[in-house]
What does this fold into?
Amino acid sequence: MAYRETPAVRMRLDAARERLVTEATAVVAEVGWAGASVGAVAAAAGMSAGSVYQHFASKTALAVEVFRRAAGREVEVLGAVLRDGAGDAVARLACGVEVFARRAFERRGLAYALLAAPADEAVCAERLEFRRRYRALFAEVVREGTAAGLLPPQDPEVTAAALTGAVGEVLVDPLAVPSGDAAAEALLAELTAMALRCAGAGTVKGTARPGGNDDR
Amino acid sequence: MAYRETPAVRMRLDAARERLVTEATAVVAEVGWAGASVGAVAAAAGMSAGSVYQHFASKTALAVEVFRRAAGREVEVLGAVLRDGAGDAVARLACGVEVFARRAFERRGLAYALLAAPADEAVCAERLEFRRRYRALFAEVVREGTAAGLLPPQDPEVTAAALTGAVGEVLVDPLAVPSGDAAAEALLAELTAMALRCAGAGTVKGTARPGGNDDR
DNA sequence: ACAAGAAGTGAACCACGGTTCAGACCTTGC
DNA sequence: GCAAGGTCTGAACCGTGGTTCACTTCTTGT
It folds into this structure.
């Protein structure tokens, strides 16, 4: 034999694959899953349509990878706040919802693609899977909150699903139509307040401070 | 001329169109939007693929009609409970959520298709529109609740969106995997309790009865 | 009964976009 | 420089499923 893969080649290959995923993510954020054809994505990454298949077995596989990368980042960030953040369970819940929403606003196109944009079967399945992960994170913090007496008795799984759906639904419309920063901030405040109500923060009889209420 | 549309013909035509919509709905409930090809739907309605185009300009138009009919019924039922039902705003909200969820469980396949199943652009757009209607109904009852002092101050639109998303998300998984009646009833109870918390029922300081709490 | 014209059929048509592949071009070890 | 074996290209291929259309079958007024 007279040819063997050299580190330099491996690196070029990996870089190309990386660029493909990155550019595909950008295209999806821009035009949605439906508009992200193999040709368009390849062009964005500066390669031919055929070369895409050097890195991924199918367009679906690429789409799934794009989704996993982007959604995985969000799961990680949310987990970091909810699980390893500072403060009690209620404080971390509020912080988690706010961080999640804030990040969504910073990358509207991508957030919309991840949350709501029409997608094919495989991506929808992935969406379901990641929603399950969001739910698991929320459920954990709710469970901790009830155990600590900060939240009233409830099924943490139901509340977690509700939080996931509620946050997503509240964000979908604002993400679709651009709005001002002030409006976004107001929305964030309302959203976190809603999330706390949803979990029942501030309604536990023994712990509730007599005159204190959660509105500012 | 020697042929003119007679009432009998009109009636047959209308009946055929009706049967088409009905059967298409059944097919969609069974196999989802993706599996509901023109051929399959036509066969279910006892007509040829070509005849579908006698009644609808395109497959998309038929899909939209199917969605509107089914979703429209739900909007009407929810509106009847939330707007014209008995009891105060909080009672009607609880009742509305429960009725909505109960109806979803009675027609799982259809409910799943309306709420979450992968669908093409046009149907997704329709979904967005109907979610807006659900939101409007919830927002109205929340607004009434805050005005009556039953609910704390809040942005009714945000809470309404949250309720819509929360109910949908909580239902998606249970709708996909069949479960027992007992589990379904328990879920309903948790779901309505969560909805009331989400709107802040029972947290208003002046009105709250000292010892009373909303857990049973 | 018959002509006019609509409803109904289903096989052929076609657009679309993912996928393939024969050839061009590179990289490597000798 | 050269052979071996890789990467890269983009035009051609192809499966899918919505849509069309020539034709058949019915319905209606005379």
